[in-house]
Amino acid sequence: MLNLKTVRLCLLTFLLSLLFTPQLYSEELNNWPRDVKVSSGTITIYQPQVESLEGNILKGRTAIAYHASGVDSPVFGAAWFTSQVQIDRESGTVHYETLEITDTRFPKENKQVGEEFNKAVQQGVKKGNLISSLDELTTALAAVEQEQKQALNLNNDPPEIIYMEKPALLVVIDGKTMLQKIENSEYQAVANTPYPLFSEGKSGKWFLNAADNVWYSAKKADGPWAYTDDPPSVLVKMVESKAT
Questions:
Q1: What is the 3-class SS of 133-184, one letter each residue?
Q2: Rounded CA gap, 18 and 130, in Å?
Q3: Which residues are registered as beta bridge partners of 59?
Q4: What integer pLDDT is reported at residue 15 of this predicted model?
Q5: What pLDDT shows up at residue 80?
């Protein structure tokens, strides 16, 4: 069976031959992902993703998976690359003058493997003229620009972290508290929570049924809550009737 280091070096040869040759324009090579058979299993190469083009420096990444024969789960990895390109708009082609692997991430990754992987790339670049389609590159860059615009609207604020040193129950309310009137009573039920949570209109008190015959009360919906052995009988009967 090939070891992981050998698999990576074999992969690079296939990656260069499949992705960066003049045959890239053929219909067959435009299909992704692509499986490559090796003596010990299969290498799956996923479509490279362009990240940026600044001046004539192109950056991107590609995902791979090695599935050894007789093994249920594949080994996944990824590689990031930087390339100096020359764009020929008249012929609609992109020429890769240099290609450098800037980072690799595999299980049990080490510096030596990364250096050998990059060395193999440089040897592959010297062997031939690496060309791809300008139309495909333009489409990929447009997609990256759209993703970056959408990412600006993402809320990356960290969530509130609640830490307790004793057992507790987290009662989740979906958005602003929505109260629903309970017929023939002075109580309202919180409609947007899965828990039996109620409010009494006159006193403003809140009641929570945390478990069978376990009730808590509070002056506000967000507490502090305290155990009560005398919950309103109308609420107790209503909860018991829905449980049966």
A1: EHHHHHHHHHHHHHHHHHHCCCCCCCCCCCCCCCCCCCCCCCCCCCEEECCC
A2: 10
A3: 52, 82
A4: 53
A5: 86
